[in-house]
Each structure stands twice: as C-alpha cells, then as structure tokens.
Amino acid sequence: MSEHVIETPKLHVIPTSDGGSFPVRRVYCIGRNFAAHAVEMGHDPDREPPFFFQKNPNNLDASGEFPYPPHTSDVHHEVELLVGLKSGGTNIALSDALKHVWGYGVSLDMTRRDLQGEMKKMGRPWEIGKAFERSGPVGPLLPVSDVGHPDQGRIALTVNGDLRQEGDLNQMIWKVPEMISYLSEYFELSAGDVIMAGTPSGVNAVEAGDTMEASIESVGVLTVKVV
Ligand code: MN
User: Fold this and answer.
1) Is it the case that residue 57 has pLDDT exceeding 80?
2) C-alpha 198 to ligand 1 mean position (Å)
3) 14 near 7, Cβ under 8 Å?
4) How far from each other are the two terminal CA atoms of the chain, in whole angstroms?
C-alpha cells in the first residue's frame, strides 16, 4: 500500500440512533418536491421530472448548532426527510428501491437564498447557496427496523416556537422509491449515499440566536441553534 502524499481527509460520518455511525459518501438533494413550496418559489407545481443538486458529505452536521454563514443576509431553513442508503447500484427498479434504504432521519437543507437567487438568475450552479460549511444540520439516522419506511406523517419546523413550515410526507411529489430509482438511472448509487427528500412550504430566514425545531412524525425532532 502506497502512502498518501497529503494527510488523509477524514471519512465523514453522522450518528445513528443506536449509537453507531453512518459513513456518508454523497448527498443528493431534490428540488421542489412539495407543490406548495414550488409555488412559493415561483414555479409551476405540475409534476415534471425531478431535479437534484448535491451538498458535500462533510456539510452534514449533527452538532445541534448552525453557525450563521458568511456572504449572505438571507439564510433559509428547509426541513427535510433524510434517507440513508446501505447499498445501491444502477437502474434500480421501483419495486427494489426501498431494499437499499438503511434508515431515516430529520435534516435541514440550510440555504443562502440570496446567493442561490443570484445563481438562478445567471443560470449558474447552486453550490454557493447550498453546499457551504455545516449547511446540512442532521439528527441521528434511525434504522428501518425501528422506523419502517415513513411515507406519511406531519413534517414541520418552528423557529423560537413559532410555526414556519408544515406539511405531510404524503404530499411529496416524488416518493422515496421514485427518487432512488430515478437517481440510479443517472448515477451509480452506493452505501453511504443520502437523499434529502425536499421541503414543504414556509421556508424563511433565520437570524443568529434563533432556535429551529424540525420534526417529522414517527422519525424524530431535531433542535438546532443558530449561532
Ligand atoms: Mn431543499
């Protein structure tokens, strides 16, 4: 085995509810997966092919704190179901898709909305608005053996106790098996890949000092302080 020529970058892991750790390989995030959110962002909610962007594995952060990021004055919360894969492949059939899921969690797709908006206007990629340090607060992943495959139930987010976002997982335009199957036609999925499954309407800005409480029925509650 030859030695690496630089210090080996750390494998990024997120916690699981049973005290283990889940190594993260890729982070796929779906856009506009709730009709009411598509409308609030100025888009037609009709079912068109799904689209995905990516965050970086080490953007996921289970610390419970979200440091207000630089170069923005409009950071938005997006509460999302997190799906963790234990296996993958290409061209995965819809009927096989859920066999690849290890578990589920609660996550936040934090977004520098002002920078994302500028990129959209110029037809440029979204990374600067989406894939920044600690932009993906997460709670522990719960194994399918505990939580099943949640496809309905309230998904909500409060800021300092005030309700901001509310929906139901059954309102997702693209369901978890469909996202897995679709992604696997374009990419080779693998153990350690996670999917952030889209946000209901009500996205809005947070400020330093705010406390966000993200909840998904039957999955859990994630509390994150903006610092
Ligand atoms: Mn999102």
Assistant:
1) yes
2) 5
3) no
4) 43
**How far does the centroid of ligand 1 lie from the alpha carbon of residue 8, in Å?**
31
Q: What's the CA-to-centroid distance between 3 and ligand 1, angstroms? A: 39
Q: How far apart (Å, rounded) are the C-alpha atoms in residues 58 and 144?
A: 24
- Chain segment 119-135, per-residue pLDDT in tens: 999 999 999 999 999 99
Predicted structure pTM score: 0.96
Domains, in order of start, for the chain = 13-226 (3.90.850.10)
Which residues have beta carbons under 5 A from ligand 1 (an ion)? Answer: 78, 109, 199
Phi/psi zone of residue 119: left (φ > 0), alpha (ψ -120 to 50 degrees), beta? alpha
Q: What is the helix (H) or strand (E) element at residue 11, kind and residue range? A: none
Distance 196 CA to ligand 1 centre (A): 7
Query: How far, in Å, from the CA of 37 to the mean position of ligand 1?
Result: 10
Q: Give distance in angstroms: CA of 78 to centre of ligand 1.
A: 6
Q: Which residues contact 34 (CB under 8 A, 6 or more apart)?
A: 167, 171, 172, 173, 198, 199, 200, 201
Task: Determine the distance separating the centroid of ligand 1 and the alpha carbon of 10, expressed in angstroms.
Answer: 26
122 vs 117: CA distance, rounded Å: 9
